[in-house]
Amino acid sequence: MIYRDLTLTPEQIIEAYGERWSIESMFNQLKLSWGLKEAWQQTRQTLHRWVHLTLVGYGLIQLLGYLDDQTVRQLCCHSPWRKDNPTTAGQIRKGLLLIFHHVPVRQWWNRKCRKFEPPNWRGSEQDAAISV
Q1: What is the dihedral of CA 104, 110, 114, 115, to 10 degrees?
Q2: Alpha-carbon dihedral of residues 115, 119, 121, 127, nearest 10 degrees?
């Protein structure tokens, strides 16, 4: 460990390093579980947008872990072998993945015009004409 403040004791340096650990685990989760490791964007602006959206999603899952609500607890009931089904951010994320695993978000990216084009969920007349 390299530390600039030479007035600190070794114990204080170790405590300061220990406070860093929560940030390190956040970056580990973002890279491995949230797809930040495979950021396939081509422009800086798109990468910034991707990071912001990913961090908002990460933050919302973390906040849901603190919410004492029946709906949140139901998201954690996907592993019947877990004793008492603990309400953690990881369990909430797994529950949401089970609900939304069929949503083809990557298919909404139009490579030709380089735009994100999700379907019209309201069912416009044009969509109805195409499906007929």
Answers
A1: -70
A2: 120
Run of H or E residues at 48: helix 44-64
43: left (phi over 0), alpha (psi -120 to 50) or beta: beta
- φ, ψ (nearest 5 deg) of residue 8: -80, 150
User: Within 13 Å, how many C-alpha atoms sit on residue 37's CB side?
Assistant: 8
| pLDDT of 121 | 67
Long-range contacts of residues 103-106, Cβ cutoff 8 Å, at least 24 apart: none
How far apart CA 54 and CA 26 sit, in angstroms, is 12
Has residue 76 got a pLDDT over 80?
yes
Of 23, 22, 54, 26, the residue nearest 40 (C-alpha): 54
pLDDT(132) > 50: no
